[in-house]
Design a protein that fits this description.
two-stranded antiparallel ribbon; mainly beta; six-stranded antiparallel sheet; 141 residues
Length: 141
Protein backbone atom coordinates (compact mmCIF):
# COMPACT_ATOMS: atom_id res chain seq x y z
CA UNK A 1 0.00 0.00 0.00
CA UNK A 2 1.05 3.53 -0.72
CA UNK A 3 -0.77 6.76 0.01
CA UNK A 4 -0.40 10.49 -0.31
CA UNK A 5 -2.16 13.45 1.29
CA UNK A 6 -3.79 16.20 -0.78
CA UNK A 7 -5.34 18.93 1.40
CA UNK A 8 -7.79 17.15 3.69
CA UNK A 9 -7.89 14.00 1.53
CA UNK A 10 -5.71 10.88 1.44
CA UNK A 11 -5.48 8.83 -1.73
CA UNK A 12 -4.52 5.19 -1.10
CA UNK A 13 -3.34 2.63 -3.60
CA UNK A 14 -3.79 -0.86 -2.20
CA UNK A 15 -1.77 -3.64 -3.77
CA UNK A 16 -2.36 -7.34 -4.36
CA UNK A 17 -2.77 -9.14 -1.03
CA UNK A 18 -3.56 -5.99 1.01
CA UNK A 19 -6.55 -6.29 3.32
CA UNK A 20 -8.85 -3.27 2.83
CA UNK A 21 -10.00 -2.59 6.41
CA UNK A 22 -6.59 -3.05 8.01
CA UNK A 23 -4.97 -0.83 5.36
CA UNK A 24 -7.43 2.00 5.96
CA UNK A 25 -7.08 1.66 9.74
CA UNK A 26 -3.28 1.82 9.43
CA UNK A 27 -3.45 5.12 7.53
CA UNK A 28 -5.91 6.50 10.10
CA UNK A 29 -3.63 5.51 13.00
CA UNK A 30 -0.47 6.85 11.32
CA UNK A 31 -2.12 10.20 10.61
CA UNK A 32 -4.37 10.58 13.69
CA UNK A 33 -7.52 10.59 11.54
CA UNK A 34 -10.49 10.53 13.89
CA UNK A 35 -13.37 11.44 11.59
CA UNK A 36 -14.00 11.19 7.86
CA UNK A 37 -15.57 9.43 4.94
CA UNK A 38 -14.32 6.56 2.79
CA UNK A 39 -14.93 5.85 -0.90
CA UNK A 40 -13.26 3.34 -3.16
CA UNK A 41 -13.13 1.02 -6.13
CA UNK A 42 -10.88 -1.86 -7.13
CA UNK A 43 -10.66 -5.62 -7.51
CA UNK A 44 -10.73 -8.32 -4.84
CA UNK A 45 -10.70 -12.10 -4.69
CA UNK A 46 -12.02 -12.67 -1.18
CA UNK A 47 -14.47 -10.81 1.03
CA UNK A 48 -16.59 -11.30 4.11
CA UNK A 49 -19.80 -9.31 3.93
CA UNK A 50 -22.70 -9.20 6.31
CA UNK A 51 -26.22 -8.07 6.88
CA UNK A 52 -27.75 -7.04 10.20
CA UNK A 53 -31.00 -8.72 11.21
CA UNK A 54 -32.83 -6.16 13.33
CA UNK A 55 -35.21 -8.68 14.91
CA UNK A 56 -32.42 -10.80 16.42
CA UNK A 57 -29.86 -7.96 16.63
CA UNK A 58 -27.27 -10.20 14.98
CA UNK A 59 -25.03 -9.94 11.94
CA UNK A 60 -25.07 -12.76 9.44
CA UNK A 61 -21.81 -12.93 7.51
CA UNK A 62 -20.85 -14.75 4.36
CA UNK A 63 -17.46 -15.29 2.76
CA UNK A 64 -17.31 -14.86 -1.00
CA UNK A 65 -14.35 -15.77 -3.20
CA UNK A 66 -13.37 -15.40 -6.84
CA UNK A 67 -12.65 -12.45 -9.09
CA UNK A 68 -14.85 -9.53 -8.09
CA UNK A 69 -14.91 -5.83 -8.85
CA UNK A 70 -15.59 -3.31 -6.11
CA UNK A 71 -18.38 -1.34 -7.79
CA UNK A 72 -18.65 0.86 -4.70
CA UNK A 73 -17.02 1.08 -1.30
CA UNK A 74 -18.46 3.71 0.99
CA UNK A 75 -18.52 4.45 4.68
CA UNK A 76 -17.21 6.51 7.51
CA UNK A 77 -14.40 6.82 10.02
CA UNK A 78 -15.05 7.47 13.70
CA UNK A 79 -13.69 6.20 17.02
CA UNK A 80 -14.81 3.79 19.70
CA UNK A 81 -12.97 3.44 23.00
CA UNK A 82 -10.08 5.49 21.59
CA UNK A 83 -9.59 3.18 18.58
CA UNK A 84 -10.26 3.73 14.88
CA UNK A 85 -13.76 2.51 14.00
CA UNK A 86 -14.71 1.96 10.37
CA UNK A 87 -18.28 1.48 9.22
CA UNK A 88 -18.06 0.34 5.60
CA UNK A 89 -20.51 -1.01 3.05
CA UNK A 90 -19.49 -2.58 -0.24
CA UNK A 91 -21.13 -3.47 -3.53
CA UNK A 92 -19.35 -6.20 -5.49
CA UNK A 93 -19.87 -7.63 -8.98
CA UNK A 94 -18.90 -11.15 -9.95
CA UNK A 95 -18.03 -12.82 -13.27
CA UNK A 96 -21.72 -12.98 -14.20
CA UNK A 97 -22.02 -9.20 -13.60
CA UNK A 98 -24.36 -9.88 -10.70
CA UNK A 99 -24.10 -7.23 -7.98
CA UNK A 100 -24.35 -7.99 -4.27
CA UNK A 101 -23.08 -6.46 -1.09
CA UNK A 102 -23.52 -5.52 2.51
CA UNK A 103 -21.52 -4.52 5.55
CA UNK A 104 -17.81 -5.08 4.88
CA UNK A 105 -15.98 -7.25 7.41
CA UNK A 106 -12.94 -8.13 5.31
CA UNK A 107 -11.70 -7.87 1.72
CA UNK A 108 -8.42 -8.89 0.11
CA UNK A 109 -7.18 -7.02 -2.95
CA UNK A 110 -6.52 -9.18 -6.03
CA UNK A 111 -5.15 -6.49 -8.36
CA UNK A 112 -5.44 -2.98 -6.95
CA UNK A 113 -7.65 -0.84 -4.79
CA UNK A 114 -8.12 2.91 -5.06
CA UNK A 115 -9.42 4.42 -1.83
CA UNK A 116 -10.02 8.05 -0.90
CA UNK A 117 -10.29 9.20 2.71
CA UNK A 118 -11.91 12.61 3.16
CA UNK A 119 -10.91 13.88 6.59
CA UNK A 120 -13.38 15.92 8.64
CA UNK A 121 -12.07 18.09 11.47
CA UNK A 122 -13.54 16.94 14.76
CA UNK A 123 -14.28 13.74 16.56
CA UNK A 124 -17.27 11.42 16.74
CA UNK A 125 -17.40 8.48 19.10
CA UNK A 126 -19.45 5.27 19.07
CA UNK A 127 -21.50 3.67 21.82
CA UNK A 128 -23.35 0.36 21.85
CA UNK A 129 -27.15 0.66 21.86
CA UNK A 130 -28.87 -2.20 23.69
CA UNK A 131 -32.17 -1.21 22.05
CA UNK A 132 -30.84 -1.35 18.49
CA UNK A 133 -27.98 -3.83 18.94
CA UNK A 134 -25.39 -1.72 17.08
CA UNK A 135 -22.55 0.70 17.83
CA UNK A 136 -24.24 4.03 17.09
CA UNK A 137 -22.66 7.44 16.52
CA UNK A 138 -22.26 9.35 19.77
CA UNK A 139 -21.50 13.04 19.41
CA UNK A 140 -18.71 14.31 21.65
CA UNK A 141 -19.06 17.68 23.41
Amino acid sequence: MEYQKFGNKYVLRLDKGDEVIESIKAVCRQNAIKLGTVTGIGAINKAVIGIFESGTKKYHSKEVTGDMEIASLTGNISEMNGEVYLHLHITLTDSTYKAFGGHLNQAVISCTGEIVLDVIEGQVDRAFSEEIGLNLIKFVG
